[in-house]
Amino acid sequence: MKTELLAPAGDMARLKTAIIYGADAVYFGGKQFSLRSRASNFTLDDIREAVKFAHSYNRKVYVTVNIIPHNGDFEGLEDYLKKLEEYGVDAIICASQAILSLCKKVAPKLEGHVSTQQTTINTAALQYWKDKKADRVVLGREVDLKQLKEIAGQADIPLEVFIHGGMCANYSGRCTISNMLTNRDANRGGCAHSCRWNYHLWHNEELLDREDYMFSMGSKDMCAVSYLNDLLDLNVASLKIEGRMKTAFYIACIVKGYRYLLDCYEKYGHISDEQLLKGQSIIETGTNRDSFPGFYPGYSIEEGQLYNLTQTASQNFVARVMKFDSEKMEAVIEVRNHFRKNDTLAVMNPYTDDCAFKVCAMFDMDGNEVEIANRPLQLLRIKVPVRVNEYTFIRLIRE
Ligand code: SF4
Predict the structure, then answer these.
(1) Which residues contact 287 (CB under 8 A, 6 or more apart)?
(2) CATH number of 4-167+219-300
(3) Is residue 186 within 6 Å of ligand 1 at its C-beta?
(4) Which of 226, 251, 333, 385 is 20 to 30 A from 269 (CA-CA)?
């Protein structure tokens, strides 16, 4: 069985980006019954279009139906599940036994994947979900590699594990910090990520903060590149990237990096150190957050602690391609972050290495030469060294 690379999609543009950059499957939430309710969730029409697009590339679509439902949350759920089945969605990701049972009853063609919010971290729990007719279990992030090896050796059900993205300061999602501080229910789509805020730290009456250093309960993000050979050797069904709130550029970089690494493993049976470094550097172009390998090295890990979230914003992503004239090798680009004439940029396409070039000249749509691109969404004409398309990102190479 080939291990799947599963990517998040906050909206249609990000879904298409994930697929074009090499995700085998994508997951997102609908307008109802899903967490991340602020992540530009999909309408039913969007879901139908998403399935059509993904299936045309032979990729899969999973819809999160992962609220922890209270009694009043079931209205409309049966019809919703039937619609997902009718539109050809491949699976739902659910965090509730009640929703899984209902799905199996009213929409039996939909696979039921048990969400990480169930904190499934032992073989007995896996067997429980197998008995309840689940088709896959997303393991809790709180499993280390040694435990995972044991679980994977005994499991009688396909496993999905996280490889990248934000971590919860609690067992994934089992948390009411957001409810308490913001009145937003983390388990009904409203998590305000309160654990990642900066807090003042007091000891009795004494304020302990340094001027530039406050306290956060969040951890660094997960990046499991260094554990990828181990995870692939275990033949898990799916490797999951977190981040439905992230940008299309982020999704492109992360998916491209992991796609490259998974393809290396498939081709050579092992990912070399050099290939791991290359994959890591592709991934790092998309993010400016510190990372650690999650709990894979062991359950307590100092490396993941992050007490101060002050991080400088990266402006690597500077433009998107809107049009391309192959005869003139000229692109119309939409400016997203500033850059200047004579800067070195790079074209980022799926599957090929990035191609660097110097900006010798750029022009606005009236033909006037422009020295500094600093107006967001301005359209500019610019020569590019390779063919580009609507999925190409232009990034700044910092000297
Ligand atoms: S507040 Fe933090 S720990 Fe709680 S659910 Fe949200 S991300 Fe997880």
Answers:
(1) 221, 250, 253, 254, 314
(2) 3.20.20.70
(3) yes
(4) 251
CB atoms within 10 A of CB 149: 15
- Percentage of the residues of the chain whose pLDDT score is greater than 90: 75
Could you give the CA distance from residue 81 to residue 84 in angstroms, rounded to a whole number?
5
Ligand 1 atom closest to 176 (CA): 4
Residue with tokens 């074009």: 20
Ligand 1 atom 8: the closest Cα is on which residue? 168
Give per-residue pLDDT as tens, 41-69.
799 999 999 999 999 999 999 999 998 89
Domain boundaries, the chain: 4-167+219-300, 317-396
Which residues are CB-contacts of 129 (< 8 A; sequence separation ≥ 6)?
114, 118, 120, 137, 157
Among 54, 35, 43, 136, CA closest to 84: 43
**pLDDT tens profile 242-255:** 988 889 999 999 99
What CA–CA distance (Å, rounded) separates 341 from 359? 5
- For every residue of 274-305, DSSP letters joined together read HHHHHHHHHHHTT--S-EE-TTTT-SS-GGGB
Interval between CA 87 and ligand 1 midpoint (Å):
32
